[in-house]
Amino acid sequence: MKRIKKQQIGYFLHIFFSITILFSRQYFVSGKSIDNSLTQNYQPLEYENPSSLPKFISRGQSYRAVIDDTIVLPCATQDLGSNILLWRRGSSVVTASNLMITRDPRFRLLDEYSLQIKGVRPQDAGDYICQIGDAENRDLVHTVEILVPPTVRAHPETGHVTARKGSSVTLECKASGNPVPNVHWIRVTKREHLSDAPRLSEGPTLTLEHVERKSSGIYRCVADNGVRDPVSIDMQLTVLSPPELETERAWVHAGEGHEAQLVCIVHGEANPELMWYQDSFLLDPTDRRTMDSRGDRHILTIRNIQQSDFGNYSCVADNALGRAKKYIEVSGRPGPAQFHSPLYSRSRDVYNLTWSIESIPKLEEIRILYRKLMMNETYQQPGRWHELVLTPPHTRQETPHHFMTYTIRGLENNSVYEAIVQAKNQYGWNEVSDIYQFYTQSNNLMMTEEEVEMAVQSEFSVGNRLQLSTSIYLLLTFLIAIRGID
């Protein structure tokens, strides 16, 4: 075994005495005393030249580091001489001269006595003191703050909340991190990009009042504190409600020997059960009648339709919270007319009215009614109805959709007209169509399609017909005046 050199023994004793003196002075300053003969025999170094006193070149700073990063705390000195440098954290000594006092392998001394900390943790935050072991006991203090990326968790942890229709419900998430994260809520839908989703609430809780069936869905809690990327967690809200029904079509056209499908769509979370009725009689499956369910769509299929199959049907849905009912009519009468004409005429006194009607049996008769609207800036007054009765040509139809056109003549120029169409087959007359409006050209102006499209709107409701018709009349008059000036 090699002998330890006298020089090494003296070096270690010097370090030991220096650490002891430093802590002894700290105890005396704080009003405490220790009995240590070493402090009585130790004589501090005296400097003949005050300008040669040891001093720090580095300056104390505040450091912010993200968890798991590596930081370096500098402690460069000048004229250190034989003095000892210590790194302390509170009352704990981390290093003394070149010796590592701490057993934490993440700490390491670099050149110029800088202290390196690898893989920083939240508990590494605090003040780190580099101290010169001389008569002045001068300190260099670095403050370390550890930044922690946000984390978030749902409350309850299952991430699923159930509520009854009409009640209030609160969704909650808990976020942590340093700095404290900002939290907000959005709703996850397929119709919009999440970055464009509006914020529903700021903070860890989201309260929804008077929830409805449509309130069911995924709500996302997002936490962000600027450290790395935001994080989020989804919560599923289920609203228990009485069943809600909708039909694909409230009127189904059919013909004897053909097939008809009736579709009811059921909404409700409490396991709704659906039943089919014809008039007030509960229906059961037969060789001509089947009942299928595909998700929330319930389908009643009737094959080889007979006269007795025509009539009123209803689908009824029940669950523990209530009942809902919707009606569907199965009829052999023609369907309502659907118009395909342009809104404007290319002529001053003629208009081609075009429409389609669904009917499996051949059409026996068509009735057209049209009238002019008397209009000025403040009111409109309908004129007298003109009736036309047509007999459709008895041509073979490959499909039940009948496309027809009729030219209405003798119209007045620069006018607004409205028309309705009705059809009859062997089962009777269909329902009267919706009122359809069209416009004739001016005597002084033959407008192009583009000009007319700029003057009129292609879609409007019956309720605001007066307002739109008046606006169109004024626009047409304005365009006529401009063309006359030119």
Task: Name its key features.
elongated, 4 helices, six-stranded antiparallel beta sheet, mainly beta, single chain
Structure report:
The chain is mainly beta and 486 residues long. Helices cover 12% and strands 43% of the residues. The chain has helices at 6-29, 37-41, 449-455, 465-485, and strands at residues 55-56, 62-66, 71-73, 77-78, 85-89, 92-96, 99-100, 107-109, 115-117, 126-132, 139-155, 160-164, 169-178, 182-188, 201-202, 205-208, 217-224, 231-240, 244-247, 251-253, 260-267, 273-278, 281-282, 289-294, 297-302, 311-319, 322-331, 338-339, 351-358, 365-375, 380-382, 386-390, 401-408, 416-425, 428-429, 436-439. The strands form 8 sheets. Strands 2, 5, 6, 7, 10, 11, 13 and 16 form an 8-stranded mixed beta sheet that branches. Strands 30, 31, 32, 34, 35 and 36 form a 6-stranded antiparallel beta sheet that branches. β5 (85-89) and β6 form a beta hairpin. The protein is elongated and about 120 Å long.
